[in-house]
Amino acid sequence: MRLRLRFAKAGKVRWTSHRDVARMWERAFRRTRVPLAYTAGFTPRPKISFGLALPTGHESVAEYLDVELTIAGGLDIEATVGQLSDALPVGVEATGGVVLDPGAGSLQEEVTSCTWTMQVPGVALTGVQELVAAALATDSLVVTRTRKGREVTDDLRQALVSATAVGSAEGSVVTCELLTQPRGVRPTELLAALDPALEPGRVCRTHQWIERGGARYEPLDAPLLAPQALARIAGAG
After folding, report:
1. Is this structure's pTM higher than 0.85?
2. What domains are there in the chain, each with its CATH number?
3. Which residues in the chain show pLDDT less than 70?
4. Cα separations (Å) of 100 from 3, 66, 85, 107, 222?
């Protein structure tokens, strides 16, 4: 049986790496005695595969992992999700689960875009709205970024699916959808392309999307946590 789980990450734990989060999940599976399947070989590893890595420092209510189990059925998924949440550290919470159909594709291959919210503190809404409108109207949105130790100039416009801006008590909030294929774009890279002087506040991934045959859906069909729930998940963080 393959199980897909969704989880949230918020608060101080947002500064932990993707690898550290993977270790948190392995410990949670051991504590809850979920019957994991393991690889063969000299050093067996649990068969867990994560979706797109969340950049360090970002929060999310829409993270996913797939895990293979040694049982074929009979698992109480709702209870298991609750037990895993209790076993995870403050700031990481399991929020849903579903059994995958045989032959279902991997998250890395199937997710085609992500939706993000990004705080832009201290900047008036009108100015941010003008920058967003200009980006959507242009045919080219060039930014220089570092990849494998080298500076590379890329055009991000084709990766920008949509963007809007609204006001907030701290300044403005940009919501954008960015493609993940053929190469992913970070929301902070988009902000730098809008205006290099803009400094991002908290950034949250709110959705991951799969598009196939004209249909668009999320990797797990269950209600998402609202971004406002991040404060509860984060605890003291």
Report:
1. yes
2. 2-105 (3.30.70.580), 109-217 (3.30.70)
3. 226-229, 234-237
4. 6, 9, 20, 12, 13
